[in-house]
Specification:
Strand content: 35-45%
Largest sheet: 4 strands, antiparallel
Structural class: mainly beta
Radius of gyration: 18 Å
Number of strands: 32
CATH superfamily: YVTN repeat-like/Quinoprotein amine dehydrogenase
Helix content: under 10%
Distance between the termini: 34 Å
CATH architecture: 7 Propeller
CATH class: Mainly Beta
């Protein structure tokens, strides 16, 4: 089952190997890329800004898109690092990562507004106002843009016009980004539930009580979902049985998991506020290995070319061998890296909290 699911994921990604169009790369949020990265990547360029990047970059058609804490959505040429355009959203963009689909860039801001912007020139197309800040990242599916808000709703808007199609009310903030599986939007909630919401009409298909405040987004392979919680656990869920398969908690370090997981070849990888990357068996939840950085890891890893790529608040970007957890490369940015990397072809792009975008290859 795991081999078949992993093979299908690889085939799907191979069709679009030159793009990383949304948070975690694909709608199932697995964080896996088909790429061939140099053994010791070098710094190709740095784009120098003045506002922190908590929003993670995406890359489509040779252009990097990301939002900063100054409320700017920027577009940068992937090959040269030169700015193409800037779009001013609200006062600030938090962790909402852009999504690019059909020539449009979508992103949420901390004023609670979902923005749709022309990908070519950065001109505003439409906006949709929610009732509280947006930290969730948008996802485009079946002609709709889905995004969560701190007003407790998951929203769906027409991707072309911005007209609200539906909203679904949860019992707390919707911080996580939805994963899309078989016509359902899966959201881990701050209300302690994993919910499956029908993309077609916004009704709830099912809910599974998790019992934990959750900021991380679910990664889905086959009929299984994986995510960390603020109760210091990583959870594996059987979606077919609507039940928790396992709960992992480090035997000594009790810290929240904010990083969203990578799932590949029967393993789950994610960072914790315990300063560690945890590699877990997807069937049992048992740890295969752990790696310790010098500060918390909120950055969600990307897996490419046998290595796990991620940032840490210790100011470094790391690459680990996925089989052993051994560090094989690092780069000192000098400022916390809480954003998650995008991987395209032979390049890795990530932003830091001192306002720089880095491209390695």
């Amino acid at each position: 089952m795991w081999f078949r699911a992993s093979l299908l994921a690889v085939i799907a990604l191979a069709l679009h190997a030159a793009d990383w169009p949304q948070f975690r790369g694909v709608p199932q949020m697995t964080g896996v890329a088909v790429a061939k990265i140099a053994a010791k990547p070098r710094l190709l360029w740095t784009w120098e800004g003045t506002e922190p990047f908590e929003s993670s970059p995406v890359v489509v058609g040779g252009v990097v898109y990301s939002g900063n804490s100054g409320g700017e959505l920027i577009a940068v040429d992937l090959n040269t690092g030169k700015l193409k355009w800037k779009y001013k959203a609200g006062e600030a963009i938090g962790e909402s990562t852009p999504t690019v689909a059909g020539g449009i860039v979508y992103i949420g801001d901390l004023d609670g507004v979902l923005h749709a912007v022309n990908a070519t020139d950065g001109k505003k197309l439409w906006t949709l106002k929610t009732q509280s800040e947006i930290k969730s990242s948008p996802v485009v599916v079946d002609g709709k843009v889905l995004i969560g808000s701190y007003d407790g709703n998951l929203y769906a808007a027409d991707a072309k016009t911005g007209k609200q199609a539906w909203s679904f009310k949860t019992q707390a903030q919707v911080h996580a980004t939805p994963s899309i599986v078989n016509g359902l939007a899966l959201i881990t909630g701050c209300d302690g539930f994993l919910r499956g919401i029908r993309v077609s009409n916004g009704t709830e298909a099912w809910s599974i009580r998790i019992g934990s405040y959750t900021g991380a987004s679910p990664a889905v392979v086959g009929m299984q979902a994986f995510f960390g919680t603020f109760d210091n656990q990583v959870i594996g869920v059987d979606l077919a049985k609507r039940s928790v398969m396992w709960r992992y908690e480090h035997r000594e370090k009790k810290f929240p998991f904010y990083s969203s997981a990578v799932v590949d070849a029967g393993r789950v990888y994610l960072g914790g506020r315990d300063k560690m990357i945890h590699a877990l068996d997807a069937k049992t939840g048992k740890a295969a290995w752990t790696f310790s950085a010098k500060a918390r890891i909120d950055s969600s890893p990307a897996l490419a070319d046998g290595r796990l790529w991620f940032g840490s608040n210790d100011g470094n970007v790391y690459a680990l061998d996925v089989k052993t957890g051994k560090m094989v490369w690092s780069f000192t940015a000098g400022s916390p890296v809480s954003a998650s990397p995008a991987v395209v072809d032979d390049k890795i792009v990530v932003g830091s909290q001192d306002g720089r975008l880095y491209c390695f290859g």
